[in-house]
Amino acid sequence: MSINTLEQYLPENTLPFLKKWFADHYIHIKITKNRNSKLGDYRRMPDRSHQITVNSTLDQQLFFFVLTHELAHLIAFEKFSFSISAHGKEWKDTFREMLLESIDIYSNDLKPIIKRFAKNPKANFMASPELVRYFHIEEPDGNNIFIEDLAINDKFHYKGEAYIILEKKKKSYLCIHLKNSKKYLFRPLAKVEKVTVDDEQ
To answer: Whole-model pTM?
Structure first.
């Protein structure tokens, strides 16, 4: 896929950055269907070319952010060797530089969030509550909320199953499945459906 073909998925004025970052690397870009497990990934292929995949359903700014994340892998590996840790210091430094270099691509309300994130880039997008919240702003939530917004003993549904919150354990929430009584840990930003009084009647 050519850089120009990517334009429909990206915010305006991103091509100069991509052309610089792509440089002379031979990169296969694949736009995939929505994947719950990841937003994108990077792989070095057997022929030493590079493959980057990004979910097609992402907001344009998030698409660019994820693409920047994956390109940072490529650039860090090429610069420091493929023996470095995938999300180690070299990758963090590279990703930080790329985010700050392209900061003007992002909207004014997103820029400060990106700048704070860039101070210590996380390997997993879900580890940044500010970014996760930002890109859920326009979602029609209904009863769907983050589990961290519930209280102890609140009931909720997750993937059609009923649970109740028992306690907060460090950065996770210990919950019990109401049918089988098994206990599970949920991340604070897990999206769940709160069970209201009306639901139980």
So the answer is: 0.69
Q: What is the DSSP letter of 21?
A: H
Which amino acid would we find at residue 46?
P
Contact 187, 158 (CB under 8 A): no
For residue 176, the surrounding DSSP H or E stretch is strand 172-177
H or E segment and range at residue 145? strand 144-146
pLDDT at 51 over 80: yes
The residues near 201 (Cβ < 8 Å, ≥ 6 apart) are none
Closest CA to 65 of 130, 139, 125, 134: 125
Q: What is the residue whose two structure tokens read 């031979």?
A: 26
> Phi first, then psi: what are they for 167, rounded to 5°?
-165, 165
- Bridge partners for 162 per DSSP: 157
- Whether the per-residue pLDDT at 201 is higher than 60: the answer is no
Instruction: Give residue 139's pLDDT.
Output: 43
